[in-house]
Write a structure and sequence with these properties.
This protein has 231 residues and is α+β, with helices and mostly antiparallel strands. It contains six helices and ten strands. The strands form three sheets. The chain has a five-stranded mixed β-sheet with strand order 7-6-10-8-9. It has a three-stranded antiparallel β-sheet with strand order 4-3-5. Strands 1-2 form a two-stranded antiparallel sheet. A hairpin with a 2-residue loop joins strand 8 and strand 9. One of its GO terms (molecular function) is zinc ion binding.
Length: 231
């Protein structure tokens, strides 16, 4: 890519910039693709694809990049379409806008020809939450939960089945509760760690995978520590 920099009334300087140097500024950290319908969180000014951040906020109220709380009850209110950023992405990435336009036209034609029909033979006019399973059709992640080896009592409070498969919307606090139930311990005695880092309870598996394990094979390796009970 080439940029023209004006150094004076008659001087024009041409500077070459590699796309890989710009990618980190125009790529969504949730899907690892270029921004589509770029949307910015007004609290911290981090930008994501609209569909990615809307789906992410269904299970979390914190920014996936900086953990800033977006809104206590309605985080979608603090999202704003960033048309300037989207225009920049379309101009920097050749063919992206045309490709996105063709995809949207294809799906609009497909839906008009093949309306979605439920088991009763009637097209869906709205989503019926009462008939839906909350986590059944979610994206899933595979985990391996290992006991931290620094503990003195290695044979006690050890999980027998260490492999877990759960929804990407599950949070660290959910894993802690499952561990406490299986190990028969109080919640304050168990911590979830990635390496030596204690993970916050509000972090989701999607955020954890993308920020710590992206590009590596499943399962995601986590450790848990058990605090010794005081006598």
């Amino acid at each position: 890519m080439r940029l023209l920099l004006r150094g004076g009334p008659m001087a024009i300087e041409e500077v070459k910039v590699k796309m890989k140097e710009l990618n980190e500024h125009i790529v969504c950290c949730l899907c690892a693709g270029y921004f589509i319908d770029a949307t910015t969180i007004t609290e911290c000014l981090h930008t994501f694809c609209k569909s990615c951040i809307v789906k992410y906020l269904q299970s979390s109220k914190y920014c996936p990049m900086c953990n800033t709380k977006i809104h206590e009850t309605q985080p979608l209110l603090n999202l704003k379409l960033d048309r300037v950023m989207q225009d920049v992405v379309y101009k920097l990435v050749p063919g992206l806008q045309e490709s996105e336009k063709r995809i949207r036209e294809f799906y609009s034609r497909w839906v008009s020809i093949h309306p979605v029909v439920d088991t009763m033979g009637l097209p869906y006019s709205s989503f019926d939450h009462s008939r839906a399973h909350y986590y059944r059709y979610d994206e899933h992640v595979s985990l391996c939960l290992e006991r931290q080896s620094s503990s003195k009592e290695k044979n006690k409070a050890t999980l027998q089945q260490k492999y877990v498969r759960c929804s990407v919307r599950a949070q660290v606090r959910h894993l802690r509760r499952v561990l406490c139930h299986r190990l028969g311990l109080a919640l304050q005695h168990v911590q979830i760690l990635y390496g030596s880092e204690v993970l916050p309870d509000h972090m989701t598996m999607k955020q954890l995978w993308l920020s710590r394990w992206f590009g590596r094979p499943a399962p995601l390796l986590l450790h848990y520590s058990v605090k010794e009970k005081r006598r």
